[in-house]
Design goal:
Blueprint (H helix, E strand, L loop, with lengths): L4 E10 L2 E11 L4 E5 L6 H8 L7 E6 L2 E2 L5 H8 L2 E4 L11 H12 L4 H14 L15 H13 L5 E5 L7 H18 L2 E5 L3 H9 E6 L2 E6 H4 L6 E7 L2 E6 L1 H5 L4 H7 L1
Parallel strand pairs: 3-8, 3-11, 6-7, 7-8
Antiparallel strand pairs: 1-2, 1-4, 4-5, 9-10, 11-12
Helix pairs in contact: 3-4, 3-5, 4-5, 5-6
Length: 266
């Protein structure tokens, strides 16, 4: 089976500055790839390349078995329908209600009747536990609710690929955990493939060591130790100065002897 996402020897410059240097990695179907690195290491640029907002100067980008880096803008629209994107700070439309924010993509596509759109919106907001906020405006939401609304908006159309750009930045630990659990929920219940950009180590180890499963007949979040298993559907990738210096599992990065990685994890 072809990977959901694959970057092959990608090079990206901004003016004369080398941002990505021969970057290659894959995201398997149903896998979450967590991208770590300091400011300016190229993390967000990777997301822009995957969704086609930027083009590589060299190399290839494959989405769902199709090479996209040479596609025209009109052709990229079809690719983007497969992808949900959660931007930093949520980036909701302040003049639209939560319902209208979530429905925006469906109105743009024009494929559904209004009653069907309302049904999709209600179902999607229910998935992120925001059904009671359907008529609220973004200004009435807490920071965590805004992020969940942004995830709901990205989920419209049931994309099998999700991109997250620092979705927990600026949130308190409890709210950040809620966002992480939503990503786990999509991974484990829906089989969504994700790229999750973050600098928060708590995000990394939460998603790398937790899964959503049944215990005693109840669906709940559990740790690897509690479930007596090893998660293989979440991997970590670390960038430094535009190059990959690590690609593997969380227990492997903890054992790394790389000085930069040790300082990052300290």
């Amino acid at each position: 089976m072809k990977p959901a996402i694959e970057l092959k020897n990608v090079v990206k410059y901004y003016d004369d500055a080398l941002i990505l240097n021969n970057v290659s990695f894959t995201v398997r179907r149903g896998e979450t790839k967590i991208i770590l690195g300091g400011s300016g290491s190229g993390k967000s640029t990777i997301l822009k390349l995957i969704i086609g907002l930027e083009k590589p100067d060299d190399g290839e980008i494959w989405i769902d078995g199709e090479e996209i880096s040479r596609l025209r803008e009109s052709e990229l629209t079809r690719i983007r329908q497969k992808i949900g994107m959660v931007f930093q700070e949520g980036a909701l439309f302040d003049s639209l209600s939560v319902a209208d924010n979530v429905a925006y993509r469906l109105h743009e596509q024009g494929d559904l009747e209004e009653e069907e759109i309302l049904s999709v919106v209600a179902r999607t907001l229910g998935f992120v536990d925001l059904e009671d906020a359907i008529e609220k405006m973004p200004s009435e939401l807490s920071g965590g609710m805004r992020r969940r609304a942004a995830i709901a908006r990205a989920l419209v159309g049931s994309p099998k690929i999700m991109l997250y750009d620092e979705p927990t930045a600026g949130l308190d630990p409890l709210t950040a955990r809620t966002i992480n659990e939503l990503v786990i929920k999509l991974r484990d219940l829906e089989g969504v493939s994700s790229v999750f950009v973050t600098h928060r180590l708590k995000d990394v180890f939460s998603m790398s060591n937790q899964y959503l499963g049944h215990k005693d007949g109840v669906l709940r979040y559990m740790s690897e130790e509690e479930g007596n298993l090893c998660l293989v559907n979440t991997r970590l990738l670390m960038l430094r100065d535009g190059s990959i210096i690590f690609d593997g599992f969380d227990e492997e990065i903890r054992q790394s002897q790389n000085e930069y990685i040790q300082k990052f994890l300290a």
